[in-house]
Amino acid sequence: MTDQKLTDRVAIITGSDSGIGQATAIEFAREGADVVVTWHEDEEGARKTVRGVEDAGRRALLLHLDVTEEAEIESAFDDALAAFGNVDILMNNASIDATGNQIADIALDDWDRALRTNLTGPMLCARRFINERRKAGGGGKIINVTSVHDEIPRVGAAEYCASKGGLQNLTRTLALELAPDRINVNNIGPGMVLTPMNQEALDDPDTREEQVQSIPWKRAAKPEEIARLAVFLASADADYVSGTTYYMDGALMQNQGQGA
Q: How crowded is residue 169: how many other Cβ atoms within 10 Å of its Cβ?
């Protein structure tokens, strides 16, 4: 195809064993990219992602990766560079949800785990990516997956909201620091998406119908919709876009002040 947006690019997508990461890996491949597929717990899901990338006619590298471990991040980049020679796109997608405990009851280990997974891991991945892109002469794209909860607080989710808010500001800082290198850094802030993070809604149509009532569009997003936004941000079409958060939430965030 001559109109592919990511022809011969190489992308690392953390947490690409399911949901948004899986859909994005396959969409990137359809647009011409080779993809480093990483998984932490769901190896079979990651292998499904690999099959999707290969079915699109592109190469995939399957790696186990715990983004809370600096050594594993360094090793993953080493393996990606050995396999493909370069990395053009980093999508920090790996994430864990809140425990549901309020601050009065939260365990420090749960707090630390959320921040290490959702904020420190993306920082470490970005650090290595930046240094590799500088060696290559600059350019490149970083996409961080935050959440509507980087702005909207949620009871029982302080560790999640704090980590996603921190990731939003990390993105803004990186956009300033990396402008001279022409490395674009942006966020995607999804609302409710039909992924394993919303397994109850996936399994039960009645639960799903109840949960979408606060969304003006009265439905959740599909992972493929998030993936198509990621393609835009990873492509040359977004070369002048940096430091921005794109919310994909069916106008959920605009609904919060209604009826006050």
A: 13
How many structural domains comprise the chain? Answer: 1
Query: pLDDT tier at 3 (50, 70, 90 boundaries)?
Result: confident
Q: Which domain holds residue 55?
A: 10-252
Decide if 117 is inside a domain. yes
CATH label of the domain that carries residue 205: 3.40.50.720
Residues 72 and 65 sit within 8 Å (Cβ to Cβ) = yes
Q: How far apart are CA 180 and CA 119, in angstroms?
A: 24
Tell whether 213 is covered by a domain.
Answer: yes
Contact of 78 with 132, CB cutoff 8 Å: no
The two three-digit tokens of residue 177, written as one number:
């620091």
Q: 223-247: per-residue pLDDT in tens?
A: 999 999 999 999 999 999 999 999 9
In a domain, 257, yes or no: no
Q: Does residue 63 lie in a domain region? A: yes
Query: What are the residue numbers of the active site?
Result: 160
The beta strands (E) that lie in the chain are given as 10-13, 34-39, 60-64, 89-92, 141-145, 184-190, 245-248
pLDDT of residue 256: 65
With 70 as the cut, is the pLDDT of residue 257 above it? no
Residue 197 has pLDDT above 80, yes or no: no
Q: Residue 47: how many CB atoms within 10 A of its CB?
A: 15
- How far from 134 is each of 87, 119, 143, 184, 242, CA to CA, in Å? 11, 22, 17, 13, 17
pLDDT digits (tens, 9 = 90+) for 160-176: 999 999 999 999 999 99
